[in-house]
Design goal:
Structural class: alpha/beta
Helix content: 55-70%
Radius of gyration: 17 Å
Strand order of the largest sheet: 2-1-3-4-5
Shape: globular
Order of helices and strands: HHHHEHEHEHEHEH
Number of strands: 5
């Protein structure tokens, strides 16, 4: 998506700054990319997402730890807050809104924020509930916002049962045909998602976009 050689260099540097968890360079490269008037979606996909994919891999191998990512997340949030208003978004119907959050007991929201950035860049309306969200809040927000999809994530094994509570709440209210629930996170497997009856599952941010689009088209 990047057309200029200078733009490619800046996005490569942004990607590397993110991989290094370098807050100052990350913000600087975000600013340079904006000054060059690069396509905001390219900044997200070719800089932000590529960098965060490798950061995620480093977390899985134990090279990085979640406290480091929490400290670094403010730089990512600052960069994305400048970028998002510049996005030229397609018009999704109001009933394709997505409620998103990290389940109660878990404060690790890096993965959720990456998925949010990608979905936002493609025009989806996101209602971000944040982290440490009680199961009941997901369903209440979905009803209030007339959302068709709830995305629940966790990175902690001991909080996985909260996902099933969200699904149980949707079913107990008879809303399973109107509201779909997608789960994800680095502790969640496709088997677990199937076992609890989730409507969708994504092991990474790129797959999340495909899964969301599939659920909306159903």
């Amino acid at each position: 998506m990047v057309t200029s050689e200078e733009g490619k260099i800046i996005l490569s540097q942004l990607c590397q700054a993110i991989i290094n968890l370098d807050e100052n360079k990350t913000l600087s490269r975000f600013s340079q990319a904006m000054e060059l008037k690069l396509d905001p979606r390219s900044i997200i996909q070719d800089g932000f997402c590529k960098g965060m994919k490798i950061v995620g891999e480093k977390c899985e191998t134990g090279e990085y730890f979640f406290p480091q990512l929490i400290d670094f997340s403010s730089a990512l949030d600052a960069g994305m807050s400048v970028l998002n208003p510049k996005l030229s978004l397609p018009a999704y119907p109001p009933d394709s809104s997505i409620v998103m959050g990290v389940i109660e007991g878990d404060i690790h929201d890096i993965g959720k924020n990456i998925v949010k950035a990608i979905l936002t860049s493609y025009g989806h309306r996101i209602i971000d509930l944040g982290k440490d969200v009680p199961p009941s809040v997901f369903i209440e927000a979905a009803i209030k916002e007339k959302a068709r999809i709830i995305c629940v994530s966790t990175s902690v094994n001991t909080t996985m049962s909260g996902m099933e509570k969200v699904l149980d709440s949707v079913r107990s209210r008879g809303l399973q045909d109107k509201i779909k629930v997608m789960v994800g996170g680095n502790t969640i497997s496709e088997k677990y998602a199937n076992d609890i009856g989730a409507d969708g599952f994504a092991s990474n941010a790129a797959l999340a976009l495909n899964e969301i689009n599939s659920l909306i088209s159903k």
